[in-house]
Protein: DUF2232 domain-containing protein
Organism: Bradyrhizobium betae
Amino acid sequence: MMAFGLIALIAGAASALMFASIVSGALISLVLFYLAPLPLMVAAIGWGPLCASVGGIAAAIGLGALFGLPYCIIFAVTVALPAWWLGHLVLLSRPVGPVTPAAATEPPVQPELEWYPVGRILLWIAGFATLTTIAALLTLGTDVETITGTLRRGLMRLLRATDPQTSGEVSQFVDAMVRIAPGAATIVAMMTLTLNLWLGAKITATSGRLLRPWPDMMTAELPPMTLVGLCVALAFCFTGGLLAIAAQITAAALMMGYAFTGFAVLHTLTLALKSRTFWLGSAYAVVVVFGWPVIAMVILGMADAVFGFRERFLRSRQPPPLPTA
């Protein structure tokens, strides 16, 4: 029990220090800030969600005592809560099939387990990315004019700090950046949460503490109703006020979810290629360098959700049934 509490406190302290490093203003602190959920996720996956909850509560209280209540709340919502819940989902399982009791002289038979699907975990990550982005925007104001005005002034200060000769000619560029800022922030939150969860699972798997088998990422798919939710969010994007901003954030998160499933589809459809590594590497390189080709992955993920490309491809690769006498 003492070791359990020590691990929880160490994970919470590491996560709190990484989160608070943003105060220094150093460039490396930005990387540490985005990796702040990682220690708590390792604790949640390797030692159970209770370990992450104890560490997260201790870290939030410590940050609140040192920096004030806002830091405590932000840490709890953006770091501790996602780490605890996603770690819980990774370990969530249920027995499938009939459980046959073993004989008295035999060891007990372990039932076959069905683990929480990767696609549903991805949907939860999209939900947390939406929640944290909306919460961050609400700290800037409670109406669209205040939020956009604060974002615009912040971007102008940033541009003037990098180039003191900045003139009013960049106002159109700043206005465009303000319009895409909520969606861009959501994409960053979605990517960093996914990266943290993947790294946390890899670390625990390497240390031998991962209690579930490593999932087949190529089978990841979002629930069917996600596409309906995306269509509704896109429709509300054409309204006004905070509702439109919230819809843009939700749509950006769900589209990134389909981008991840699009990469899973790409990995599946290239199984028959001899130069598969080259084509996959090229696809990742193009997306990383240019960014906008990720739209193709979004379209591929959505098309697979409608037409079932992976299922058809895998069915076509199965051997024909043996002839019956």
